[in-house]
Amino acid sequence: MQGPPVDVEARRPFIDRLLAARSRPPAPGSAAAMGPPKHATAHTALLHLLHSNRDLLGSAVDQCYAAEVAVARGYFKVRAVHWCGE
User: Fold this and answer.
1) Is residue 32 part of a domain?
2) pLDDT at residue 4 in the model
3) Residue 84 has what pLDDT?
4) CA-to-CA distance for 42 and 67, rounded, in angstroms?
5) Cα–Cα 20 to 30 A to 67, which of 19, 20, 50, 61?
């Protein structure tokens, strides 16, 4: 299925917040303890976005230099995984 690329400017704040969510682990038994960590969800979402929308590669490279270290590290890691998988 081919279509226009996703509006990265609308999605980036959401992904950035998830990548930056490397806070303390949730309490055992809480609703937040169920499912994967937020940053892992962001990595998967970003990786799928890059696989399906090659037009986003430039924007992902730009985010590797984001001011927030956790965000920059997350984009760099996903970009490296995507590059090695090509």
Assistant:
1) yes
2) 64
3) 83
4) 18
5) 50
User: What is the C-alpha to C-alpha distance for residues 14 and 86, in angstroms, rounded to an integer?
Assistant: 25
Tell me which residue range forms the domain holding 77. Answer: 8-21+28-85
Q: Work out the angle at residue 84's Cα, subtended by the Cα atoms of residues 79 and 70, and round it to the nearest 5 degrees.
A: 30
pLDDT lower than 50: segments of the chain: none
38 domain-assigned: yes
- At residue 11's C-alpha, the angle toward residues 39 and 24, to 5°, is 20
Cα–Cα distance, 56 to 15 (Å, whole number): 13
73: amino acid identity, one letter? R
Confidence at residue 65, expressed as pLDDT on a 0 to 100 scale: 92
Q: Where are the alpha helices (DSSP H) in the chain?
A: 8-19, 38-52, 57-63, 69-85
Torsion angle (degrees, nearest 10) of CA 52, 56, 57, 60: -120
In a domain? residue 3 = no
Distance CA 18, CA 21 (A): 5
